[in-house]
Specification:
CATH architecture of the largest domain: 3-Layer(aba) Sandwich
Structural class: alpha/beta
Shape: globular
Order of helices and strands: EEEHEEHEHHHEHEHEEHEHEEHEH
Number of domains: 2
Number of helices: 11
Strand content: 25-35%
Largest sheet: 6 strands, mixed
Strand order of the largest sheet: 6-7-8-3-9-10
């Protein structure tokens, strides 16, 4: 794998009542899409904002090409923030021109408009853009300085499926460029699976597991059983299936309108029949039952659904520090 373009070393970020990042280390090889996953409050956004040079760490450091973050890094970093307010009364072209003027070197406005397929929108007022169009404009703004590192903090949150697919295609195209490294945070497992070359799952400000999407899925060994539950009682569901041999990593999630049962197994066909029989016998209502190969959702539930009392227990499945 390529040499790291970014390194995070023993990063800690403390606030008066919480430690948002707790001794996190990671390395981002040049020329890949590096994904950062984790639940709300896991420390993803705090970590990426420290990597961007926006927040100051309590301790630890971030290095760009082996040196502390400096003006050279700021000139070569592009950022698509989780939330950004666009200037009113400016057109798409005027907005890109405004931000291009902040850098001594970069791409031309026409190049950026073409890269993000904004030709038909360049004269439109920012206030009249759809959510997907706004994200394309914000991506264009992040690219005006021709960055070597592009930070994308939950870039498709709130977009409809069509706009999300269009953004994914653009990110894939950009991350395929030899000179560009992408650092991505996301809540969407499908997004991470499609875009990231390497993934780090964090929880409680600490690393949990790292690897390529395929490595992480293979690490679970075996298929999964999924059951959609109707008016579930997690305690009752767990009790009903407790005697089924071969089930492991059982996760039961419930909400006000339903829930799910997910479990790992080496014999999916036998497990499905046993689960159906056990739920029927217990009078637990359920809908669809399915067996499937491991997905990133399975990986996420497996690792984030378990509490690591010591960060050193977190397995690392690829190069780069994750403890």
């Amino acid at each position: 794998m390529n040499e790291p373009i970014l390194e995070v070393r023993n990063l800690i970020k403390q606030y008066p009542n919480v430690t948002a990042v707790d001794g996190l280390s990671l390395a981002v090889p040049e020329g890949i899409c590096f994904g950062l996953l984790g639940p709300n409050g896991a420390g993803k956004t705090t970590t990426i904002e420290i990597m961007e040079g926006i927040l100051e760490a309590t301790s630890g450091d971030v290095r760009y090409r082996g040196a502390p973050l400096d003006q050279r890094f700021r000139e070569r970093a592009g950022i698509l923030f989780q939330k950004t307010a666009l200037q009113d009364f400016l057109t798409v072209r005027q907005s890109i021109t405004l931000f291009r003027g902040l850098y001594a070197h970069g791409l031309s406005v026409d190049e950026v408009i073409r890269m993000c397929a904004l030709e038909k929108l360049e004269s439109r007022d920012n206030r009249k853009l759809s959510g997907g169009q706004q994200q394309r404009l914000l991506l264009a703004i992040a690219l005006v300085n021709d960055p070597s590192v592009l930070f994308l903090d939950e870039p498709t949150t709130g977009l409809d499926p069509e706009a999300r697919a269009a953004m994914w295609a653009e990110i894939r195209r950009l991350s395929g460029a030899e000179a560009l490294t992408v650092v991505l945070t996301t809540h969407y497992m499908e997004e991470a699976d499609r875009l990231a070359d390497d993934l780090l799952i964090v929880n409680g400000g600490r690393a949990v597991v790292q690897g390529t999407p395929e490595e992480l899925k293979l690490a679970l060994h075996g298929d999964s059983v999924r059951v959609s539950l109707i008016e579930p009682d997690p305690v009752a569901v767990r009790a009903a299936i407790a005697g089924i041999a071969g089930l492991r990593d059982v996760v039961v999630e419930a909400s006000g309108v339903g829930g799910t049962l997910a479990a790992r197994t080496d014999d999916a066909s036998a497990a499905v029949g046993s689960v159906i029989a056990a739920l029927d016998a217990a009078g637990i209502r359920f809908g669809q039952v399915a067996a499937s190969h491991p997905t990133l959702d399975d990986v996420y539930l497996h690792f984030v659904g378990h509490t690591y009392d010591d960060a050193e227990q977190a397995p690392v499945l690829s190069t780069g520090a994750a403890a």
